[in-house]
Amino acid sequence: MSVLSQLLNEYGYLTLFCALMLELICIPIPNEALLSYVGILSFHGKMNLILSLLSAGSGGILGATLSYWIGYTLGVPFFRKFGSYIHMGPEKMERISKWYGKYGKVLLVFSFFIPGIRHIASIISGVIRLPFRSFCLFAYSGVFLWTGTFLSLGYVLGPQWDKYQGEIQKWLVLASIFFGIVLLCSLVIKANRRYIKESLFLLFQATFKRYRSFLKIKLFIFLILAAFISFITLMVGMIQNFISNEFTPFDKISRAVISFVADSRLWSTMQHISALSSWTVLSIILIFTIGTILVNNRDKWLELLFLGLTLTGGFLFSNGVRWLFRFMLTGSYTSADFPNERSMMVLIIIGYFLMMLVRHQKNYLISMIELVVLLFILLAYSVSAVSIFRITPSDLLAGYVFGAVWVSGLMLTLELFRFLSLIKKGLNH
């Protein structure tokens, strides 16, 4: 940034033009900081705000346009020749092109606010051959909205910009992510509107108009729903306590209890229990889970699909939540390990295995015993993990709670899919 400041002082608007142009041709430059600095200079009368906006906007437009034509010229031959090797063959590219042509324009406007995304958004638009007029309208609007926002923030806040810069950038990125998630959900709902409407109608009829049918399945779904809502409530409460740093007493008491329970004579046993979080042990549990699904042979492909979603989604959810907390709470005295990834993956994998056992178990007493065994395993792992890995008790508990939210949410979805298939089979017969 110091080099950019020197160039800005020496060459003025030309530096601003070139910096914006180069960043949108995939050259990483901290342009949010530069634009804000220019806004501050405009506040002090050293630069003109309108000329700064025109220079930055023009440079951004040129960079975005060049990126578009690079993607347009080089992208299509590349995907025709090599796309099938990375599951992006001509047919898939055509489907993406149709989807992007229908919905991607709105996403293009806000993509410039997200670092890493703005560098490739224009290239992707060219690769999938988004009509150039549409690209110009939405990309150029996005460039001016992005540059204008940071210039205006620097100008309005003036000398106080340094004080608020980090927080403003955090909330802008968070707002962009939130908007992207909401937009993606709305697009999925819109694309599957008919199926969703039919499914909700069938579920409503089966639940309220034919309440005596499928009673066991309905009870099972209700119990999972109650657990899901409880875990969500607990998770929100833990996030509030984490942000306000209220876990210190809990951690002190938990460590004192664990140090009293975890006698040195049990050290060897605790080391064996702590191996539960190793991928070797978790892989063995996964093999048993797959075996349980295949042996029962009921909706096995659906259960295997949800097992895959549980694993991949759980890993992404764990890392995404941890990244979000670190990003939003940078500089504050909070744990960097909240929620703990090890305990989260332990609960997700063992939790799904247990749900498969309970789901296919006809003896309710055995199901209750299995639940008690799970609680005992989690308690034993907690003692060993805090003693051996020195994990903070609140971080470990948060890992369990976040993992439980993920597993119970997916199990609820799985049971609803299973319930719908039973209803449809009943209607066909």
TrEMBL record:
Keyword Lipid biosynthesis recorded: no
Domain VTT: 29-155
Protein name as it appears in the record: Membrane protein DedA, SNARE-associated domain
InterPro entries the record matches: DedA_domain, VTT_dom
UniProt cross-references to PANTHER family, sorted A to Z: ALKALINE PHOSPHATASE LIKE PROTEIN
Record's GO cellular component terms: plasma membrane
Transmembrane segments: 49-70, 106-128, 135-156, 168-189, 219-243, 273-295, 302-323, 343-359, 371-391, 397-417
Protein family per UniProt: Belongs to the DedA family.
Organism: Sporolactobacillus nakayamae
This protein's record includes keyword Repressor: no
